[in-house]
């Protein structure tokens, strides 16, 4: 059911796979800027598992692509007769 509204879904049933599943879900959340579904079965709530590895730091920004993008946005704003700016999740 959650597949239609999330970018990843995990069920934390096996303590051995929990760290990798959590890391994968959060990585996909960050990359896709969409919701993830993480289910913890009632009988596993207090079960110990390994540590989740740290997520990599932000990707390097391609400064040429960023400059080209901002130049195009500024040019379009300058040429606009009436301006409406709608910022969504992709703005990050």
Plain-language structure description:
It is a single chain. The protein is an alpha+beta fold and 92 residues long. It has a domain at 1-47. It contains two helices and two strands; from the N terminus they run βαβα. Helix 1 links the parallel strand 1 and strand 2 (36-39). The longest helix is centred in the last third of the chain and has 17 residues, at 63-79. The chain is elongated and about 60 Å long. The model has no long low-confidence stretch (mean pLDDT 87).
Number of DSSP strand runs: 2
SS strand fraction: 5-15%
Using the alpha-carbon principal axes, give the shape.
elongated
Helical stretch count?
2
User: What Rg is obtained from the alpha carbons, in whole angstroms?
Assistant: 20 Å
Q: State the secondary-structure class.
A: alpha+beta
Quote the distance from N terminus to C terminus.
28 Å
Low-pLDDT ranges: none
Helix content: 25-40%
Oligomer: single chain
Average pLDDT rating: 87
What distinguishing features does this structure have?
alpha+beta; about 35% helix; about 90 residues; 2 strands
Question: Summarize this, please?
Answer:
Helix content is 35%, strand content 9%.
Write the layout of secondary structure elements.
Layout: E1 8-11, H1 18-32, E2 36-39, H2 63-79
Parallel strand pairs: 1-2
